Amino acid sequence: MPPSPTHRVPRKKVAVVGSGSAGIAALWALNRTHHDVYLYEAAGRLGGHTNTVPFHHGKYTTLVDTGFIVMNTATYPNFINFLKKIGVPTAVTEMSFGISRDHGLFEWAGTSLGAIFCQLRNVFSWRMWRMIFDIVRFNQLALDLLRYEEGHDTNSKKRIDLDESIGHYLEREGYSDAFRDDYLIPMTACVWSTSPDKCLLEFPAITLVRFLPDWLTIPDGSKAYVDAVMKGFPPNHLFLNTPVKSLSNDADGRVRLHLEGGKSEVYDHVILATHGDQAYSIIQDSATPQERQIMSCFETSANTAFLHSDLSLMPVSRKAWSSWNFLTLSNRDTGRSNTDQVSLTYNMNILQHIPRDIFGDVLVTLNPLHDPDPKTVQGRFEYRHPLYTPAAVRAQGMLDRIQNKRGISYAGAWTKYGFHEDGFSSGLKVATEHLGANLPFQFKDSTFSRGKKPRLGLKNLFIRMGIHWLQIWLDALGWLGRLVFGTPVPAYRMNGNGMTNGRKANGVNGVNGHHGMNGTKERLA
């Protein structure tokens, strides 16, 4: 049902708390109404993860995004329509992925065959070939999960647990450790800009599978859209460096915001466009039992980003250089990945088309293995990202029960999958549904743009048939290896007890998790 026209909603004094994607979206939508709107931001700048900063190289300066960097053509319908309406251009970008383990001991990237085997010894590595096979298999078969979620194949004997974790799914389907540790976990961490020990294998498999390729960036930096929205906004309605400590309801039902220093302001309606845990902190003192039950499930993790040009935080082999570069150190005791020692480096020369011959190497590293050389650093930034635990995902499904109650709306990327679109769409949604704002384009639920199972063509059927027979061959080879050598040749397969090569899966290596993905434009399948 479309939202009521604005004129049917009485004029209200509205406070938007938080100026990230959700807050800016709500503000933009409400700016087009008769409501009296105010914006509160705890920081000294607007934008949240939309943080565009200058990068200097000699006499040249360019703008670089350090938080929100790219968007997806298939899964960002509202945000892209919004950019078109305000006249902010976009440009196609490359989303390639590479990994470097133990200072270059093991490296690969998905940009080309030469990048996959940038280390020639990997041509003879069973683990490498098994990973490639599992990537192709996963990209073909994992989206079948959505068929069951959408109610297809109801006569099938196969039943899918909608809460099944991606870790359990990989275990059940016999995916290799190599696929898990050297592809899926690093890829997921890169896409959601989240530390691998915080986000991954406990995440529901069906939610994880909703992912599509084809990416865009904003040439002049993502801050361009924030500036466009704020143009003409009354300065006396904007409160920077003004954290909201708590809120309460007055006797007449209006919402009172309690600010630092003992000050307070009263509003008819408040939109909490913050992280979920921050929203809970604000409402906690006055929360109802239901609000506590739901909002206490949302958590975030802290992440540090550096803008720099230190190449020691890139893969050793330039053939492995990609848009996203996952670097990790192995645990000396087990030889396996240590979740406390991982970092993600975004190659901004590729992502934002910044000429290397003019500006040199422009890199953004999240949680670096070591601090970059201070001489190369041009900025350090702290960001928080939502954690997607099963409890948080279940709480998302109950959020409507407390929306628009007590004069409070909740918005943010944490209400869906953690993408910029999710935050932006949530801001638009509360502005239209709760306050009667009208949009100059049709609102689209991006849930469905991620959840549609693609049609299978003849090519897909042949690929699946080949995967099936190759899987039989691999299983037979493993059985032969056990018979002859006492050890299966595919030594990187998970068994039914959550054990990997005799060790209990843990953190980045086990069932610990902004979704498996249908690839990210990797040229492997």
From TrEMBL:
<dbReference type="InterPro" id="IPR050464">
    <property type="entry name" value="Zeta_carotene_desat/Oxidored"/>
</dbReference>
<feature type="domain" description="Amine oxidase">
    <location>
        <begin position="22"/>
        <end position="433"/>
    </location>
</feature>
<dbReference type="InterPro" id="IPR002937">
    <property type="entry name" value="Amino_oxidase"/>
</dbReference>
<protein>
    <submittedName>
        <fullName>Amine oxidase</fullName>
    </submittedName>
</protein>
<dbReference type="GO" id="GO:0016491">
    <property type="term" value="F:oxidoreductase activity"/>
</dbReference>
<dbReference type="Pfam" id="PF01593">
    <property type="entry name" value="Amino_oxidase"/>
</dbReference>
<feature type="region of interest" description="Disordered">
    <location>
        <begin position="503"/>
        <end position="525"/>
    </location>
</feature>
<feature type="compositionally biased region" description="Low complexity">
    <location>
        <begin position="506"/>
        <end position="519"/>
    </location>
</feature>
<dbReference type="InterPro" id="IPR036188">
    <property type="entry name" value="FAD/NAD-bd_sf"/>
</dbReference>
